[in-house]
Every structure is written in structure tokens, then in C-alpha cells.
Specification:
Layout: H1 2-11, H2 13-52, E1 57-61, E2 77-78, H3 81-86, E3 91-97, E4 99-105, E5 121-125, E6 133-138, E7 146-150, H4 151-157, E8 164-168, E9 174-184, E10 194-198, H5 200-207, E11 212-213, E12 215-220, H6 226-235, E13 241-245, H7 246-260, H8 262-293, H9 295-303, H10 308-347, H11 361-387, H12 391-395, H13 405-428, H14 433-470, H15 476-490, H16 493-531, E14 536-539, H17 552-557, E15 562-575, E16 578-585, H18 590-593, E17 596-601, E18 610-614, H19 615-621, E19 628-632, E20 638-648, E21 656-661, H20 662-668, E22 676-681, H21 687-697, E23 705-708, H22 709-752, H23 754-762, H24 767-805, H25 815-832, H26 834-841, H27 845-850
Helix pairs in contact: 1-10, 2-7, 2-8, 2-10, 2-11, 2-22, 8-11, 8-16, 8-22, 10-11, 13-14, 14-15, 14-16, 14-24, 15-24, 16-22, 16-24, 16-25, 22-24, 22-26, 24-25, 24-26
């Protein structure tokens, strides 16, 4: 039986290849997910290892000993600790490590005076520690206004010794002169980042870290006991500071980074799961069709002595071979896909670390397991059914009993009702999102089942519609081909529904994502128009330095074009044990930046240790007026009394649920700067005039940007468009798999109807009509799948929008793209039918008639 299965695979190479392709995409996605993140992680790990080369120990903050702190800026240690380390016996040299961020300003680009987002721009304190960077030309920085740049950035930006580089941190734009160029060991691992090196004093000034550093790098004298020396260093360190060997510190930093990158793996694995699910449907449907065609063959094996177990094994052997083939193709396909992802991100300015592709045994094992297991799982149910076919029933052309239509409708109704009910219940009662996901999966399963239930009715309705619309334009021969195509699709509703169902999954997800994205856009627009009265908002920019420079508020308030301006503070805090955003506002100036409806209490009482809470949050955690709220930012937690409960002017809540008095924030966190300023322009000043005046006044503050409502909406739309394109590109793979399924099932259908096609050819049907018949069938099946997908996508998009914003969201369906996608799916079905139609039209008539 195994030899018979292998021979069948060899004799049906096209079918085998198409079945493998249906699984390849899923395997490729799984492989790409791990290859992509492993490659990035190894590049950073290599950079950390290079930085630690030649060092013996590292002294830094102990993350386990330091209490969680939400203070603005990075936690640092006293520079005086360096003297304590240097005094330990066996220590040779102590190097100071200090890093901060700046924004590089391009004075020649008037449209974009500062480079926001993208790779970070680092400033390092220059030291002579081995292993990280090496001066290749010029000299080291010796005082204020002097910097060394990394060689990659110098080449990319055309910098040379003597050039001026403009940058901004928490103040006005500054200029520094390049005095040297340094090579970073192993190349720049941050792909597109800029490395600047300044003196320690200058770096401390830029970082606002007087007498503070990030860490110390230490080398030992030759021949000393490294472990004992590290213990001696640790004994003299204050609480919260630790010493460990340099390589362990590098490995720990690499592990932390790998954990931070895990979200990329999860994101890509979600699309891998979609591709695997679609491929599973395709392979299952194909195996069910193939086994249905081979009932005579399998029955003959049974008559010759084969047991049910042997029949089952023969089918699973075929599936296993196809799974192995899919893995062989899919794993290198994942490597190629990972490279394409890197190129795509580079094209959009998201540079990634340079480095060789990493393909680990873990990636190969997981990807191969997915390929083989998916194929075996897809073939299991058809194989079990094949082993249960009675030999005599198969030889006498008695086919297995079909599932009654009533039972199919009942199953469909139960799946849809439970799925919708579960999603409603979970969202309305604020249950876990996984319950919403379970409801969504049931909705998808119900819609998939609906395909088989409505296939007969849908094909009949489609035929009538086509006849009504196209009858005046088509002759009798065309009508015959349409009718035969409709009949072919109608008489096998399970096959038609399953083929359409694979396409339905992809279309449903694309439709749902489009709806969610457009609903986010519309909801954001409504919220801005209803809840934010400011004419313009001043932001620090979108780089790593998220703070308004000191003096920005005074400059804006003094402008004659400005009627009023208000600054606020905002940062994450620990509130009653949960992380939330805490906003510091001046109560009398709240109307300048937000429309708030007070439900209970008054903002007039918001002073000292008091807090105002958004009603949605108060309802969620059962807070009432007068209740105490413990707020921790830095230092010790402080109890605050609730004096106001409010709602935003729009129906949508935001993530900033707790407001305190602006001056009270200085008590909780003296280091937190202003992060936003809302501006109202004077009477008679247009938004465009006011914005231009503010931008001109702030032109010396390189990290500051001014946005009107339309600007903010443009930023949101641009970001959402990028997300939409990325997700559509990844989901497009699942649609391609579904179209492969259309090709595969149509090819098997042609094989199944070989004798029928021979007969209609014998009585006068020409090749063109045969091709048209197959194409019509593919077109109708694709439209059925697209229609079901749009239906499921509307439901999932509605629930998804609710999950993002709550019940107050603005539901927006992009009808033009949805309709275009529906029509495009039908046209894609026509393209998918090209090969099966060609095969059907070129069958030898006499051989087809004689075929059994």
C-alpha cells in the first residue's frame, strides 16, 4: 500500500505540487517569523559581545533591586562610584559609560527641519575602552562643541572632519564640529542610526545628568582572580548597583532585547496561522475530493486483502510526503520572505541591523512540524472516511450518504448564533479579549459552513441573475456553457462551499481589517472635532526625546497671534497597582485642550493630593467620588482623593484616565517636563496664519512640531495607511493560497468529469465553450467565497472596532474598496481557472469517452 501511494504521488505530480503549494505559504510564514527576529537578535547580540570584548566587568544599576520608577529619563548612578571601583585591588582601568539621545536637525530641509521617528541618534561619552569603537581619522573630542561621528553615518550623510552637525535635545538647536571619525566594531548594528561621541562633561550636559553615568566598564590587572575581584567591587557598591562579568552583562542585554522583539514574532505568527488555516482547508478539500474519486481504487485494494488500517495508512503516507515536500520548499521560502520584509522596511525608512541571515535548528524543526502536521491533519478525516467505504458499495457506484440540508443549516445557525452571542457578551461585560477571539473564530466557522449550505441556492440565483442581465447579449451556446457551469457547482455543494470557504477566510480578514482601520480613522476625526477645541497643538516630536524644551511655553504665550496657551504633563504611573496614564493639568485651563463633561464633583477642587477620573475607568474599577486612589510615580506612593468624575466630549474614551493638578505632578515627579501645549489663536487669525507664526517663533527649537487638527488627522491617516498596506500584503498570501485551492479543485473536478467532458465534446461542444464552462464555474465559486468573506468581514469589523474603542466608535465601511475586492476576487477566479480550463479543452475526445 505504501508503494501504491508513492506511485500515485509520482503519477500525479501536478496535483502533488499544488497540494504542497497550499501548505508552503504557511510554512514560509512560520519560518520567516523566526528567521526575521533571530537575525535581528543575533545582530544586536553580536554588537553587545563586540562591545564587551576586552573588558572584564561591568557595574550598572541592578534591575532586581531598584523599585519600579516611572520618573522621566533614564535611571543612572553617581559618577563618584568610579573612584570606589578604581580603589579595589586588581582593577586596572575604569571607563565611564553614558549614552543619551538627540534629534539631528537638517537646516537645508525647510519642509522637515528635524528628523523624527526612524532610527535613534545616540550621543556617547568618549572613552578609551576596548572593543566598541576605534578612532580611524581625526582626533578625539576635547571640549564643548566637538564631536566624533561613526564612519557609516559619515558616509551616508556626506559628513567629513570640519563639518558642523546641528542637533537638539531638551533645548534650542545646537551645533557641534566634527573632529574625528570612528569605526564601530562589527559595523553599525542599528541600521541607519547615528553615533555621536562627545566628552563626558558635554554628554552629561546634553543628557541633563550632572555627576551621573549609566555604567562603568572595568578591566583587571593580569593574573588576578576575576570572580574574586568582581565580588570585591560588589562589596563596595551602594544598594541598587551591581557588578558582573562583562560577557554576562552582554548576554543579559541581548536577552532583554530579544524579549522586546518577541512582539514581531507574535505579529508574524498570527499571519502564519491564517495562512496555515487557509492551506489546511484547501488540502482537506482536495484530499476529500481525491479520495472521493478513488473509491473504486481503494475498494479494489480492500477486495485484494487490504485492511482498513492499510488504506488509512496509504492516504496518510501520501499526505506525509506532501507535507515533507511543502517543508522543503517552505523553509527556504521563509528565508526569502524574511529578506523581503527587511527590504520592505528599509524602503519605508525602517532600517534594521546589518548581519547574516540566521536559520536555527529550532526554526527548521518548528517549520517542518507545521508543514507535516498540517497536511496530515488535513488528510486525516478524508482518510478515515475512505477506510470506512464498503468495497461492494464502491464497486456498484453507491456513493456515501450526503449530509442532509436541514442538519447543515442547523450546524451553521448554531455556530453563528453562539459566535455572535459570545462576542457581544464579552465586549458588553468587558471580558477577556480571548473570548472575543473565540467568538470571532466561531463566526468564521459558521460562515464557512454557510458556504456549503447556500451553495445550491446561490448558484441557482446567480444563474438567474446572469441570464436576466446577459441574455440579450449572448447566444444559445454561451447560455449552455453558463448553465453547465452553474450545474457543476450546484450539484456538489460541499465541494463548492469548501472551495469558496478557503477564499472566504482571506477576504473576510481583509475586509475586517479595512473596516477597523477606516473606523479608527473616522472615530479619531470625530473625537478630535468634538473633544479637542485647540486650534493647534505643540508636540516635542516623534523621536526618543519626548519633552518640550524649556522656554517653549514662554515663547508661544508671548506671540500676538496667540490668545491663550496651556501646557500639560503626561506619563505612565502606577495607580492602585495598575499602570495607567496620569495627566497633569491646570484646572482653569482645561477648556483650552479638551471638552470635558463633569458627571460628579468639580474640577475647581482639583488641587493638592486630589484626582479626577474618567467615568469609563471609574465604572471599570468601581471608583466613586471621595474614594482614595494610590498614585506612584517615583519615590513613595501618595494617596489622592477623587474630587471629580468626567467624560470626554466625544463618546470615545482615551487612555489618559486620571487627571491631577499641574503643580501636584512636581510633587510626584520633579523631573517630568511638559509634553504638550494646546494653543488658541487670537480673533481674526486663521489657523494657517497662527500655525506659521508659532513655527517661526519656535524655529530655534529643533525637536518641536506644530500640528493643527487636520495635521493630526493626516498623521493618523498616514500611519494607518502604512499599517493597512503591511497587513494587506501579509494577508494577500492567504488569498493566493485560496486561489491555488481553486486551481486544484477545478483540476480535480475536470479529472472527475473526464467522461462527461468527452461526451459533450462528441455532441458538438467546441474547445472554447469547454474553457468558458470551467471559467464560469471558477468565477461563480470565487464570487461566492468573496460574498461570504465580505459578510463575515462586516461582522468581524464591527466587533473589532468595538474592541478597539468601546461602544461609542464610529463604524465606517470603505464600500469602494470592499466592492472592488469582491469584483477582484471574481476576476482572480477567472485567472485561477486558466490551467484547468486549458486541460479540460484539450482532452482527447475518444480517450475521455472511454474513461472510467
Amino acid at each position: 500500500m505504501v508503494r501504491a501511494s508513492l506511485r500515485g504521488i509520482w503519477e500525479h505530480k501536478v496535483r502533488t505540487l499544488l497540494l504542497a503549494v497550499a501548505v508552503v505559504a504557511g510554512v514560509s510564514f512560520v519560518s520567516a517569523s523566526f528567521v526575521f527576529t533571530d537575525t535581528i537578535g543575533d545582530a544586536f547580540a553580536g554588537a553587545f559581545a563586540d562591545a564587551a570584548a576586552g573588558l572584564d566587568a561591568t557595574v550598572t544599576i541592578d534591575p532586581d533591586a531598584v523599585e519600579e520608577d516611572f520618573a522621566f529619563g533614564q535611571q543612572r548612578i553617581a559618577a563618584s562610584i568610579g573612584d570606589v571601583i578604581a580603589a579595589v585591588d586588581g582593577v586596572d582601568q575604569v571607563f565611564v559609560d553614558l549614552t543619551t539621545f538627540v534629534q539631528i536637525v537638517d537646516p537645508d530641509d525647510e519642509a522637515a527641519p528635524a528628523t523624527f521617528g526612524g532610527p535613534p541618534n545616540f550621543v556617547f561619552a568618549w572613552n578609551d575602552a576596548p572593543g566598541f569603537f576605534e578612532l580611524t581619522s581625526g582626533r578625539a573630542p576635547a571640549g564643548p562643541g566637538e564631536i566624533v561621528v561613526d564612519a557609516d553615518s559619515a558616509a551616508d550623510r556626506g559628513w567629513s572632519i570640519g563639518d558642523a552637525v546641528e542637533y537638539s535635545s531638551l533645548g534650542p538647536v545646537e551645533s557641534a564640529t566634527i573632529v574625528g571619525v570612528a569605526d564601530v566594531e562589527g559595523g553599525n548594528p542599528f541600521g541607519g542610526a547615528v553615533f555621536l561621541f562627545a566628552t563626558l562633561d558635554e554628554t552629561q550636559r546634553i543628557a541633563d545628568a550632572a555627576d551621573q553615568v549609566d555604567s562603568f566598564s572595568v578591566t583587571f590587572e593580569a593574573g588576578v582572580d576575576a570572580e574574586a575581584t568582581i565580588d570585591a567591587i560588589a562589596a563596595g557598591l551602594p544598594e541598587g548597583v551591581r557588578a558582573l562579568d562583562a560577557q554576562s552583562a552582554a548576554e543579559e542585554a541581548a536577552a532583554d532585547l530579544e524579549e522586546g522583539l518577541s512582539f514581531i514574532t507574535i505579529f508574524l505568527l498570527i499571519f502564519a496561522a491564517v495562512a496555515v488555516a487557509v492551506g489546511t482547508f484547501v488540502v482537506y478539500n482536495a484530499f476529500r475530493t481525491v479520495i472521493g474519486q478513488r473509491t473504486r481504487e481503494l475498494a479494489l485494494f480492500r477486495l485484494l486483502g487490504a485492511t482498513r488500517r492499510q488504506v488509512l495508512t496509504s492516504v496518510l503516507v501520501e499526505a506525509g510526503v506532501i507535507g515533507v515536500l511543502a517543508s522543503i520548499i517552505g523553509i527556504p521560502g521563509g528565508v526569502a520572505l524574511a529578506q523581503l520584509l527587511r527590504l520592505a522596511l528599509s524602503a519605508f525608512g525602517g532600517e534594521l541591523p546589518a548581519g547574516d541571515i540566521t536559520l536555527t535548528p529550532r526554526t527548521i524543526l518548528v517549520s517542518a512540524t507545521v508543514g507535516v502536521f498540517t497536511t496530515l491533519l488535513s488528510a486525516l478525516i478524508p482518510a478515515i472516511r475512505a477506510s470506512r467505504v464498503l468495497p461492494m458499495a464502491a464497486l456498484t457506484d453507491i456513493h456515501p450518504r450526503r449530509v442532509p440540508a436541514l442538519r447543515r443549516w442547523l450546524i451553521t445557525g448554531i455556530l453563528l448564533a453562539v459566535g455572535v452571542g459570545l462576542a457581544f457578551w464579552a465586549l458588553a461585560t468587558d471580558r477577556a479579549l480571548w473570548i472575543v477571539g473565540a467568538g470571532a473564530l466561531l463566526i468564521m466557522a459558521g460562515t464557512y459552513s454557510l458556504g456549503a449550505a447556500v451553495a445550491t441556492v446561490a448558484m441557482r440565483a446567480a444563474g438567474r441573475m446572469i441570464d436576466t442581465v446577459g441574455k440579450p447579449l449572448r447566444g444559445a451556446r454561451t447560455t449552455i456553457t453558463r448553465q453547465m457551469a452553474i450545474e457543476n457547482a450546484r450539484r456538489a455543494p460541499r465541494r463548492t462551499g469548501a472551495t469558496a470557504g478557503a477564499l472566504m477566510i482571506g477576504v473576510a480578514l481583509v475586509t475586517a481589517v479595512a473596516i477597523i482601520v477606516f473606523s479608527i480613522q473616522t472615530t479619531a476625526r470625530d473625537a478630535l472635532e468634538q473633544a479637542f477645541p485647540a486650534d493647534a497643538v505643540v508636540f516635542p516630536g516623534f523621536g526618543p526625546v519626548q519633552a518640550l524644551a524649556e522656554g517653549v511655553g514662554d515663547v508661544v504665550e508671548d506671540l500676538p497671534e496667540v490668545q491663550a496657551a496651556s501646557t500639560l504633563k503626561s506619563a505612565p504611573a502606577r495607580i492602585n497597582g495598575q499602570t495607567d496614564f496620569l495627566v497633569g493639568v491646570q484646572p482653569e485651563e482645561i477648556p483650552l485642550f479638551a471638552v470635558l463633561d463633569v458627571v460628579e464633583g468639580s474640577f475647581d477642587d482639583l488641587e493638592g493630593a486630589t484626582v479626577a477620573v474618567q467615568k469609563s475607568e471609574a465604572d471599570r474599577v468601581d471608583l466613586a467620588l471621595g474614594d482614595p486612589v494610590e498614585i506612584f510615580v517615583t519615590g513613595e506612593p501618595v494617596d489622592h482623593e477623587i474630587v471629580a468624575i468626567f467624560e470626554l466630549g466625544s463618546d470615545v474614551s482615551d487612555s489618559a484616565s486620571f487627571y491631577i493638578d499641574y503643580d501636584q505632578y512636581a510633587v510626584l515627579d520633579p523631573s517630568l517636563p511638559d509634553v504638550q501645549m494646546s494653543v488658541i489663536f487670537a480673533d481674526g487669525i486663521s489657523v494657517e496664519e497662527g500655525k506659521a507664526a508659532v513655527e517661526t517663533a519656535l524655529q530655534d527649537f529643533g525637536t518641536v512640531q506644530v500640528f493643527t487638527q487636520e495635521d493630526l488627522l493626516g498623521q493618523i491617516e498616514t500611519a494607518l495607511l502604512g499599517v493597512l498596506v503591511l497587513i494587506f500584503g501579509l494577508l494577500g498570501m492567504s488569498i493566493l493560497i485560496a486561489l491555488v485551492g481553486v486551481v486544484l479543485i477545478l483540476s480535480l473536478s475536470v479529472f472527475e468529469r473526464t467522461r462527461e467532458i468527452g461526451l459533450v465534446r462528441a455532441i458538438g461542444m467546441v474547445r472554447r465553450q469547454v474553457r468558458a464552462m470551467v471559467r464560469w464555474e471558477a468565477f461563480l465559486v470565487a464570487l461566492l467565497g468573496a460574498g461570504l468573506g465580505v459578510l463575515a468581514g462586516l461582522v468581524l469589523g464591527w466587533f473589532g472596532s468595538w474592541a478597539v474603542f468601546g461602544p461609542g466608535f464610529s463604524f465606517d465601511v470603505p464600500w469602494l474598496p470592499v466592492i472592488a475586492g469582491f469584483i477582484g476576487a471574481g476576476l482572480a477566479g477567472l485567472v485561477a481557472a486558466w490551467w484547468p480550463a486549458y486541460r479540460a479543452a484539450n482532452l482527447n475526445i475518444l480517450e475521455a469517452i472511454a474513461y472510467e
